[in-house]
Design goal:
Blueprint lengths: L1 E7 L1 H5 L3 H11 L2 E8 L3 H7 L9 H8 L4 E8 L2 H9 L12 H5 L8 E3 L3 H11 L13 H4 L9
Antiparallel strand pairs: 1-3, 1-4, 2-3
This protein binds inosine-5'-diphosphate and magnesium ion.
Inosine-5'-diphosphate (IDP) binds next to loops.
Length: about 160
């Protein structure tokens, strides 16, 4: 099982899209194991986006991400990291495929609704930035036996 860090960005919260976006992950069978509504402190946004420091969009990105509340999620499932990236769609709302979150809900390139970790290394690093020990939960769901095929002894 993988856990990935998802952020519903300020535009998603302001536009009232939290429920619909979270539903997409739940509908897919993914499990929400952490959730936090917060205004991201500037230093935290800078840490989270450190790899983009120096790029032309960096200052605007930090300003946007800290401008209003976001919903930070820890999302778990088999292959959750790549699966969530695929469900998010390409970075720019204008280019993202229909059927993806950015493709269906966004038209802007910078206000693109959602962040998702792009690798296991990024997920581990980003989860640690936003969640303290114990805030990412372990719990089973009755439906898990129907989300995954357990006949081989492990979820498939
Ligand atoms: P990702 O969110 O799809 O992983 P990244 O390249 O990691 O895309 O960029 C991080 C965020 O920075 C994007 O989600 C978007 O909000 C913003 N961003 C990236 N490239 C541009 C750009 O060229 N113009 C404006 N904003 C950008
Ligand atoms: Mg990225």
């Amino acid at each position: 099982m993988e856990t990935t860090l998802i952020i519903l960005k300020p535009d998603a919260v302001q536009r009232g899209l939290m429920g619909r976006i979270v539903s997409r992950f739940e509908d897919k069978g993914l499990q929400i194991v952490g959730a936090k509504l917060m205004v991201i402190p500037v230093a935290t946004a800078e840490r989270h986006y450190a790899d983009h420091k120096g790029k032309p969009f960096y200052d605007g990105l930090v300003k946007f991400m800290t401008s209003a509340p976001v919903l930070v999620l820890a999302v778990r499932g088999l292959g959750a990291i790549a699966m969530c990236r695929k469900m998010m769609g390409a970075t720019f709302g204008s280019k993202a495929e229909a059927g993806t979150i950015r493709g269906d809900f966004g038209s802007s390139n910078s206000f693109n609704l959602i962040h998702g970790s792009d690798s296991p290394e990024a997920a581990a690093k980003e989860l640690e930035i936003f969640f303290a020990k114990g805030e990412v939960l372990e719990y089973s769901r009755a439906v898990d036996r129907w989300v995954y095929d357990h006949s081989g002894g492990k979820p498939e």
